[in-house]
Specification:
Strands 6-7-8-9-4-3-10 form a seven-stranded mixed β-sheet. Strands 1-2-5 form a three-stranded antiparallel β-sheet, with no helix packed on it. It is globular and about 35 Å long. A hairpin with a 6-residue loop joins strand 1 and strand 2. The protein has one helix spanning 31-37; strands at residues 5-8, 15-18, 24-28, 42-47, 52-56, 60-65, 71-76, 83-90, 93-100, 114-116. The chain has one helix and ten strands; from the N terminus they run βββαβββββββ. It has a domain at 21-120: Alpha-Beta Complex (glutathione-dependent formaldehyde- activating enzyme (gfa)), CATH 3.90.1590.10. The protein has 143 residues and is mainly beta.
Length: 143
Amino acid sequence: MKIPFTGGCSCGAIRYECTAEPIMMFKCHCRDCQHVTGSGFAPAVLLPLGALRLTRGQLRYHFTSSMARGKHKRGFCPECGSRMTRGEFEEGEPQFVGILASTLDDPSWFRPQMDIFVSDAQPWDQMDPAIPKFAQYPPPTKE
């Protein structure tokens, strides 16, 4: 992976640049991610807040409930509908930002470190047995 890295939506109306290495990469199998991606999971790259900058266009947002806290703020392209970002908000304050790996210009470097919400995984979803699995969210990391 080369920093900065870039990506965008399928029609090109939204473009972004990220200036930091990912905090984490994972596949989320929750029903909410299944619904919004139309797939069995969402391949996500978690980024430090402020590291992602839109270089073209403006996202529209849809909010969904979060099991852990607050709301998920899901950004999408208003032109083509491509799902782009996810942020988690607690008491109105963003904690991080995530992008879908499929929006990367070069998604070949995406390496999931874990599967989360495997309790909702579909029986036809073939998960990598070599990475950790969590029924829901992973436990907090100690810093």
